[in-house]
Amino acid sequence: MSWPTFQQLRYLVAIADAGTFGAAADEEFVSQPALSAQIKELERKLGVTLFERSSRGALLTTQGSEVVERARIILREMNDLVGTTHYEGERLRGRIGLGVIPTLAPYVLPDVVRSVMTTHPDAELHIHELQTVHLLESLRRGVIDFGLLALPIGSEEFATEAIGLDNFVLAMSESHPLAKAKSPVKLDVLRDERVILLEEGHCLRDQVTHVCQLAFSEPSEVQATSMATLAQMVAAGLGVTLLPECAEKIEAGPGRGIVTRKFVGVPPNRTVGLVWRKSSPYSQAFTELAELLAPTK
């Protein structure tokens, strides 16, 4: 029996993800003819047609889809196998993939990167900014090794470790009536406000929506594509929003036209943490990293 090569499986998955042979070749740093030849050889070995080729791209056949999913498992397991050689004692070595959700990346990522590079100087971090659903899928497929996101994730499939709470503050324009007072506000002020949300796909949207429900408030239909855009919309007076405290210095800093107020009592918040595959050879390192990142009690 003639077995597929590891490289052929990599090329197969790359085409499935990129959608075209050309884009996959660019990602794999190989010529398109060389990649196509490897796929043809793979099809010959397996005795099936994996792709329907057309001017619009490469469409997986039914059998091709099944082979791709099995190839992903093989690549992930091989990645973890190789990963065991990159972990000696308490040190990570080599390429380590980190996924970060967009509402944390600009604000928390620098501390995480600094901690990893200090404690694991031989590690080469590759950062992927991904929404939660895509982050978990990338983790499942072995594209990344661990993630930084908001917990819980609603799944027992992965190992998680909290690193801290991120409180929400009320953000408004400088011309807003509540901006005049310096004291904390009650949660029920949201009932009379137009609360702007991020667009679908961001977990922060769901968290803010939940807070609005607690305050019996109906969020606005106005949506922002990013935290930066959300802050600009608030500064323009289009509404208010709940801003994570970790983003306050950047998005509501001096000259941004935004005023923030804390909430009375226990503020609404989200839990920030790390996530990784339970089978990961780096589990101990990620647990220790989470402990390092957690605030001192």
TrEMBL record:
Keyword vocabulary terms for this entry: Activator, DNA-binding, Transcription, Transcription regulation
Tagged with keyword Nucleotidyltransferase: no
Family matches, as SUPFAM superfamilies: Periplasmic binding protein-like II, Winged helix' DNA-binding domain
GO molecular function, a single term: DNA-binding transcription factor activity
Domain HTH lysR-type span(s) in chain numbering: 4-61
One cellular component (GO) term of this entry: protein-DNA complex
Record family assignment: Belongs to the LysR transcriptional regulatory family.
Protein name per the record: Unannotated protein
